Amino acid sequence: METNINKVGSIMDHAHTAGSGYDILRYACLPDLLGKDSHSILYVMGKNIARNLSFSSIEEIIVFFKDTGWGDLTLIKEKRRELIFELTGQPIENRMKTNIEQEYRLEAGVLAEAVTQLKNAPCECIEEIKQKKNSIQLNVLYSK
Which residue of 49, 55, 101, 130 has the fewest C-beta atoms within 10 A of its own C-beta? Predict the structure, then answer.
């Protein structure tokens, strides 16, 4: 059976869905299916998604996050070996209003790999949920 991971660009261009179906799959079905390893697997899945796309600027990453419906990604600060992003918007606010366990490992994996492409250096991303600000802080660390 052929996989669709190498068709992410085509999926982004042509398949758009709305509603809670995505959230049910993401926050109920996938964690149930993946079990205790779901955080690690979702992170790797995010990296694999980004490997099948080409990013040449921060702006392209921001547009990708918006187009996927993940929220509004903003570069907050650039340090010597770290980029600090904030993910906000209606999707984040809506999830924060629910009583579900949330994680943003898929987004963190995509962001880590996308920045790897820009910096041409290995990157890892750590996410922190900022409940009071209705935002997610994503810290991308890299070395040269």
Answer: 101
